[in-house]
């Protein structure tokens, strides 16, 4: 306030010419700031458009060769003459591993967030929060190495044989959990993804849970509600838009994860009903084969990248539309 008063006094003391020159300088600064911010905003659109154009240009030979059948062709034989390339195996692996990851990470992440905001003693809140943040900062290649050398063998000797024996002969589930056990499998990759996206769901959920007005929770406790009832009837409904946003962010990370999945999924293009069988994802297939590819094989891998781009775009767009509908309902 003192600086503004001094500035106004100086303006008043100056002559008409000095005031006009100062005002012109302010207008020039505003115009410069306006155009700089506009250029930054437009550059984002240009970069996005450039990525799309480059993907389409690189994938065009494969698009002409295979057409729409590329999406539902299972065979992947780049060494054949001519090469036979199909995206069904990587698409299937991407969707299955992401589904497994979200199936595990959503309830665990929400449970941790509820514990931290509603039940956790103050002495434990900070250490657990720091551990969650540390998980988010671990490089994905470290997750992949740990999954390959530790998690994969552990699951192959303990969890997988148990599930195979438990569901043997059970309709549908017997096929889903069919053997033999394997170090490299869709389930192992999905579990690694769940661990990787868990911090995103937990951190965002904790932040949005803290936005619930204390008076709402106190009123619920005042009428005799239990902690579970307060969470289910007050906290979750009040914060559902933010929670869903965090889940969609985690899903986007799961769909595009590369290195950790490449280590532990097995790189097999075959489709089987069992989650304990090896598989591949779009990003893992590209990472495994792109360096040695050329010609139509390379174009097919770029087309896989375009498919992943569109898949992620449509998932996030659908999530955004769902959030808009929830916001409109909440505003009524």
Spatial separation of the terminal alpha carbons: 42 Å
Rg, nearest Å: 27 Å
- How much helix is in the residues? over 70%
Poorly predicted residue ranges: none
Largest sheet: none
Give the helices and strands as they follow along the chain.
HHHHHHHHHHHHH
At CATH level 3, the topology of the largest domain is MetI-like fold
Give the strand content. under 5%
CATH homologous superfamily classification of the largest domain: MetI-like
Shape: flat
Question: How would you describe this protein?
Answer:
The chain starts with a helix and ends with a helix. The chain has helices at residues 2-13, 16-66, 88-119, 122-137, 140-157, 159-166, 173-176, 186-209, 214-222, 227-256, 259-264, 282-289, 295-331. With 332 residues, it is an all-alpha fold. The protein contains 13 helices and no strands. It has two domains: 2-68; 88-331, MetI-like fold, CATH 1.10.3720.10.
Concise account of the structure shown:
The chain is mainly alpha-helical. It has helices at residues 2-13, 16-66, 88-119, 122-137, 140-157, 159-166, 173-176, 186-209, 214-222, 227-256, 259-264, 282-289, 295-331. The longest helix has 51 residues, at 16-66.
């Amino acid at each position: 306030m003192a600086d503004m008063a001094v500035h106004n006094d100086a303006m008043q003391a100056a002559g008409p010419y000095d005031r006009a020159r100062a005002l012109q300088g302010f207008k020039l600064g505003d115009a410069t700031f306006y155009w700089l911010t506009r250029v930054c905003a437009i550059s984002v659109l240009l970069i996005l458009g450039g990525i799309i154009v480059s993907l389409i240009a690189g994938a065009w030979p494969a698009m002409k060769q295979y057409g729409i059948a590329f999406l539902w062709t299972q065979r992947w034989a780049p060494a054949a003459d001519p090469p036979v390339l199909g995206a069904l195996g990587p698409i299937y692996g991407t969707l299955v591993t992401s589904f497994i990851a979200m199936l595990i990470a959503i309830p665990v992440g929400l449970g941790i967030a509820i514990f931290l905001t509603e039940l956790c003693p103050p002495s434990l809140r900070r250490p657990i929060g720091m551990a969650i943040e540390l998980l988010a900062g671990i490089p994905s290649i470290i997750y992949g190495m740990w999954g390959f050398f530790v998690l994969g063998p552990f699951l192959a000797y303990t969890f997988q044989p148990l599930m195979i024996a438990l569901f043997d002969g059970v309709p549908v589930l017997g096929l889903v959990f069919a053997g033999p056990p394997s170090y490299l499998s869709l389930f192992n990759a999905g579990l690694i993804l769940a661990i990787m996206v868990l911090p995103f769901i937990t951190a965002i959920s904790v932040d949005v849970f803290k936005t619930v007005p204390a008076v709402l929770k106190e009123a619920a406790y005042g009428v005799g509600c239990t902690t579970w009832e307060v969470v289910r009837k007050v906290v979750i409904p009040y914060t559902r838009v933010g929670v869903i946003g965090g889940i969609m962010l985690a899903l986007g990370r799961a769909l595009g994860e590369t290195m950790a999945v490449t280590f532990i999924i097995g790189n097999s293009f075959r489709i089987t009903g069992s989650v304990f069988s090896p598989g591949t994802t779009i990003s893992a297939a590209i990472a495994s084969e792109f360096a040695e590819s050329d010609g139509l094989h390379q174009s097919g891998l770029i087309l896989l990248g375009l498919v992943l781009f569109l898949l992620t775009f449509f998932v996030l767009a659908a999530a955004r539309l769902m959030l808009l509908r929830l916001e409109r309902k909440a505003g009524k």
